[in-house]
Amino acid sequence: MSRADVLRTGAGRRPHPLWSLGLLRSELLTTVRRWRTLALLGVLAAVPVLVGIAVRIETRGGGTVGGNGEGPAFITQITNNGLFLVFTALAATLPFFLPMAVGVVAGDAIAGEAGAGTLRYLLVAPAGRTRLLLVKYATVLAFCLLATLVVTVSALLVGALLFPMGELTTISGTRIGLAEELGRALLIALVVAASLVGVAALGLFVSTLTNSGIAAMATTVGLLITVQIVDQIPQLHALQPYLFPHYWLSFADLMRDPVYWDDLMNNLGLQALYAAVFGSAAWARFTAKDINA
């Protein structure tokens, strides 16, 4: 069912849950099929490939990589177990590439429709503004998961091709088997995807403030960069625990035995708070927005 079909069949009728599912399916397909989205996913998939090849070349002659503490987390362990490439790739993409991709998609969610003149027609169908906003946010959250899985699967394939796979030594020094390794890798991917919930809500809120998709995307990415800079300034340490990227790298605690849950819970709680605050702000703005396009 295309977006046009959804609009034709939905116009003039009362909202129905199946209609909402049809709109969600249409939004997901429209988002994934855009060249911009495919390009973003391609860049994300390329990061593990580049890291894996670089580590392979660097260690071909028996040398070491990242031995002086430089580079993403876990990079020194990749040659021992290719699964560490998954953790390294996520640590490398989470500070900027993943949230930037999510910011682009979230920023375009409402503003892009308004700029293209299609928002008015979406609201003619019996979704209502609240339901449409929820569908848009669900689409952005689905992209968060998709983008994270793209990095994870790419890193897993490259790691298996270039490096040995087998028992893994955790940060705590204990050894776990391949099945548990893969389970932890999947759990880490889910935690990383959940870490992007706050950025998604922020981008959606910004998207309701303007009719220009480009302006919304640029503003979201600019805010992301600004917050990242503030999170690195020592003099602002009292503010940093309340910034949405502060606990992003806490997913590394899942590689401990036993797992340290404190920072992980702080991260998930903070993302939920940002989602509630900026989601409510987006709803308040969108329900009162004058749709002229």
TrEMBL record:
Lipid biosynthesis recorded as keyword: no
Q: Which UniProt keywords apply?
A: Membrane, Transmembrane, Transmembrane helix
Task: From the record, give the transmembrane residue ranges.
Answer: 38-57, 78-98, 140-164, 185-206, 212-230
Instruction: Indicate yes or no for the key word Transmembrane helix.
Output: yes
Protein name (Swiss-Prot/TrEMBL)? ABC transporter permease
